[in-house]
Amino acid sequence: METEVKLTKLAACAGCGAKVGAGTLVQMLEGFQTHQDEKLLVGYDKSDDASVYQVTEEIALVQTTDFFPPIVDDPFLYGQIAAANALSDVYAMGGEPKLALNIMCIPETMGKETVQEILRGGYDKAYEAGVIITGGHTIHGAEPIYGLAVSGFVHPKKVLKNCGAKPGDCLLLTKPLGIGVLTTAAKAGLVEDAVLQKAYRQMATLNKTARDIMVKYPVHSCTDVTGFGLLGHGYEMAQGSGVTIHLQTEQIPYHKEALELADMGFLPAGAYRNREYASKGVRVKETVSRAMLDLLYDPQTSGGLLIAVPEAQAKACLEELQCQLPATRFVGYVTEQEENPLIVE
Ligand code: CO
Ligand code: CO
């Protein structure tokens, strides 16, 4: 039976906003027995974007998976966004995705055409990325879910961990913030179509271009800004690297409509979870507005890359990124570890 129900109405929380909080995850995975292997260059304990396993002197395997309930009503667009988001974790390691598997859950009442459109969106993005989808697994369930398990490759010496930032680095961000706020407010019909279309295009944009430019520079560290928000992912980068990250709010790219909506109190549940996780490590200067701080905690779906690059190369890297990705901004800098891992100024 064909259903007319809007896709997002079937989802309790949208996109990466459905991600379980970082603090909760750490607790749940504590104390499990695992094998030690020196070829495992990045494992779960590093809270990084993907795992990395060295195969030869020249090749390391990058693996990751990401999936979530519908964040938009258009099934094709939903498929595109879910795939772009899943592939992003390979780009965030400096790698190139090569193979992927579909992960899908569909309500029994969902029409065949809707399912096909979701998959078509996924294949479309995989094709654009040069990735081959080789299979997958689909189950029935109450809430639709779609995403990919992705395998890619990176040179073992060129892995971009989220724990490599060094004092003196500049931080670049390649996509504007506010996606969680906009998609939450959109459910209540409070966002103009033109604004939403811009947000949708942004989420469906692969981080491939950002990755391809970034790897030409001596980047120290990279992560993609997704469910934990800029402050959550920034917190992981600062903690892992043993440095303090300064975020300069006047420079941070965001959707101005999202700032207005945040000011009116439209925040996704994930923003509160992210605040709970990271706020203990964050010092905020009085001049920063509450709404701006909310955007820094806002969970992003298929967000941009946060790149730590030495100051000497930062300008050239920024300019090259801006040619292809005009929203890219210099958003802060890295210092020796101070009392707080994150300072918002
Ligand atoms: Co990630
Ligand atoms: Co992920």
Could you outline the blueprint of secondary structure elements for this entry?
Blueprint: H1 22-28, E1 40-42, E2 51-54, E3 60-68, H2 75-91, E4 96-106, H3 112-129, E5 132-140, E6 145-154, E7 169-173, H4 179-187, H5 193-204, H6 208-214, E8 221-224, H7 229-241, E9 243-247, H8 256-263, H9 269-278, E10 282-284, H10 290-297, E11 305-310, H11 311-324, E12 329-336, E13 342-344
Parallel strand pairs: 4-5, 9-13, 10-13
Antiparallel strand pairs: 1-2, 2-3, 3-6, 4-6, 7-11, 7-12, 8-11, 9-12
Helix pairs in contact: 2-3, 4-8, 6-11, 7-9, 8-10
The chain binds cobalt (II) ion (2 copies).
One cobalt (II) ion binds at residues 49, 64, 66, 89.
Alpha-carbon distance between the termini?
54 Å
Strand adjacency order, main sheet: 8-11-7-12-9-13-10
Task: Indicate the structural class.
Answer: alpha+beta
- For the record, what is the CATH homologous superfamily label of the largest domain? PurM-like C-terminal domain
CATH hierarchy class name of the largest domain:
Alpha Beta
Instruction: Provide mean pLDDT, rounded.
Output: 94
**Over all CA atoms, what is the radius of gyration?**
19 Å
What is the CATH topology descriptor of the largest domain? Phosphoribosyl-aminoimidazole Synthetase, Chain A, domain 2
Q: Can you write the helix and strand succession as a string? A: HEEEHEHEEEHHHEHEHHEHEHEE
Bound molecules: cobalt (II) ion
**What is the tally of beta strands?**
13
Instruction: Tally the structural domains.
Output: 2
Low-confidence stretches: none
